[in-house]
Prior knowledge:
The complex is a heterodimer. By secondary structure, chain A is mainly α. Chain A is about 50% helix and about 0% strand. Chain A has 2 domains: about 20-55, no CATH class; about 70-229, no CATH class. In chain A, helix 4 (about 70-90) runs parallel beside helix 8 (about 145-150), helix 4 (about 70-90) packs across helix 11 (about 220-229) and helix 5 runs antiparallel to helix 6 (about 110-120). In chain A, about 25% of the residues are buried. Mean pLDDT of chain A is about 75; it is low at about 190-205 and about 210-220. Chain B is mostly helical. Chain B has one domain. Chain B has 7 helices and no strands. In chain B, helix 2 (about 20-40) packs parallel to helix 6 (about 95-105) and helix 2 (about 20-40) packs across helix 7. The termini of chain B are far apart. In chain B, about 25% of the residues are buried. Chains A and B meet through helix 4, helix 5 and helix 6 of A and helix 2, helix 3 and helix 4 of B.
Amino acid sequence: MNPSKPLPNNDLKNGYGYLDARLSNLDSLRDVWASKTEQGWGRLIEAKVDMRGVTSAPASKTNTHMTREEVEYFTKGARAGFVGIALRHGFTPLEMWDVVEDGMKRLGLHQDDLEDLQHFCFGWAELTPESMCRWSLRYPKRCPLLDVLCSLDHTCAELNAVQDWLLDKKGSYGRTCNDVLPALPTPDGKRPCPCCEPGKPASDCIQEAAPKTSSQPNVNVTSLQEKIR
Amino acid sequence: MSMSPHYRKKSAESKPALLNEKDCAFFVKGSTAGFRYIAHKYELTPVQMWLTVEAGLKKVGMHHDDLHDVQLLVFGWKPLTAEMLERYRWRYPDRCPLLDVLCTLDDTCEELNRVQDWMLKLKGAKNRRRLDLLPALATTSSVNN
């Protein structure tokens, strides 16, 4: 429902199979509905859905198309975040996926998309500009994967750069973190963070780890950032 | 105290050649390729594939502590050094549990089979790629058999 544009009160007069008598005699369908009340939870129900907001074209300022370089930039940053956070917090690949999957479900990601996302995170499937466009249309405001990763741990500079860039591109409000999920506890001193060694930029250690998870050729993030901007 | 010449000679002769970085790369490439090949063939997600392999590794007696390392290895999250491969070689002297499980699940990946044959020759084990301890995965259709 779109609260800013309420439906008119007389829209049922337009009719879609109902007799005119329904408008004057409110009890005419009582017997029909009485039988439906005995059908339990599986019974059919009548619902009124405002499809105008769903079927309308996306806002013109929202740019859903991405070039190949932009898709590579996104892929590199997302996987760097996925691997980097797991390494930082001592998670195995499966443990990391469990955490991310839990976050995805909380954010309302469709079950069908989870399998595709799992393949992507582990580097078993690559995104194309076309598939990225479909994801953008499905999640127009924010990227659920980046939201979850940034909420879990917002210390990966490479991931944050991709999140900021994507929020700007989607025309969404510029918050890197999403408060829906709690952040992971900070690793203790016995488990040094690979991203936070003194004097070492966060992206360096991730860049060493992430290409090993991906079948695509090594991407120079700096040159991609310059090219995209 | 000095070692007897006979004993010293025997120990020196029985010491096999050390593995190098090239061997590690060959092993990692073949095993990860086999891991992904089998998952793709049987339409398993990465998580499902690992759970299948993990169950097999437990059956063939891999130590629980090693499962963590193997998981990181097959997903490419941890590099394998020559020293690590040597340690695994001495811990599992007859056969490689990971290659055994993968080849038993499906023995149609050429790259994986090459690594398994090389490993069996290296360990001096009997030349059987598959183990009867585990069942092969069920084929999904006649198309990808």
